[in-house]
Amino acid sequence: xxxxxxxxxxxxxxxxxxxxxxxxxxxxxxxxxxxxxxxxxxxxxxxxxxxxxxxxxxxxxxxxxxxxxxxxxxxxxxxxxxxxxxxxxxxxxxxxxxxxxxxxxxxxxxxxxxxxxxxxxxxxxxxxxxxxxxxxxxxxxxxxxxxxxxxxxxxxxxxxxxxxxxxxxxxxxxxxxxxxxxxxxxxxxxxxxxxxxxxxxxxxxxxxxxxxxxxxxxxxxxxxxxxxxxxxxxxxxxxxxxxxxxxx
Length: 248
Prior knowledge:
Pfam families: Proteasome. Component of the proteasome core, a large protease complex with broad specificity involved in protein degradation. By secondary structure, the protein is α+β, with helices and mostly antiparallel strands. It has helices at about 10-25, 70-90, 95-110, 160-170, 175-185, 225-230; strands at about 30-35, 40-45, 55, 60-65, 120-125, 135-140, 145-150, 150-155, 205-210, 220. It has six helices and ten strands. The strands form two sheets. It has a five-stranded antiparallel sheet with strand order 8-1-2-9-10. Strands 3-4-5-6-7 form a five-stranded antiparallel sheet. Strand 5 (about 120-125) and strand 6 (about 135-140) form a beta hairpin. The longest helix has 21 residues, at about 70-90. The termini are far apart.
C-alpha cells in the first residue's frame, strides 16, 4: 500500500490563494471612486448584458471582478439577504457593512473548504451616505477578508498598478466628470506603462448618487449621457434629465 501524499495546511492554503489570484488576474480591472455627490463604478466591459456592477438595495451597490457565474451567484444571494432583512426589520437596517460580513463568511467558508475550489472573484460593496463622510466602500478578496477602503479602490487584472495611480491622483470633492476621467485614465494604462484608448461603448459606468430624490440611488450611465460626461470639463451634466441611464 502506497503512502498518501502529504501537503502541509500552510502550503495547501497558499496554493488555493495562488489559484484564486491567477483566476481573478485574468479578468479586466474595475475601479470604484468617491466623488462629491456619491460613488462611481467604472470598468471596461464590452458586454451589454453581463454586468460587473449592480444595485443591491436602496443605497448599496455591488462590483465584482473574476468569474461571472461565481460572482453572479453571490450578487443574487446579497439581493435576497437585503430584501429579507429590509422586510423583516427596517430598510435602514440593510447596510454595506452587514452585507460585507455576509459575503466574507461565504467566501471564507468556500476558501477554507477542501471539498471545493476557491471562488475566483474579488468584490466591492459600497454604500452612499447622506454626506461624503458617510460613504462606505469595502473590498472583499477571494479569502473572505474585509478591507475598508476610502477614496478609491481597484480590483481584478492589474489592480495593484491601477490602485497606485489612483492613490496619487484621486482627491476628495471631485466632480463626477473628473472622477470618471481619472478612472478611465487609470484603466487605460497597461502593465508595461503604455496607454491605450478605451472607447465609451466598451465602458460600463454606474453611480450611487446621493442627490437623487428617490430612495434608490443606483443609476447606470450609458449612451450620450456617458459621452457628454467624458467630454465635459466641469461635470455639470444632469443625471436626472435623461432617460438613457437606466436603474437596475
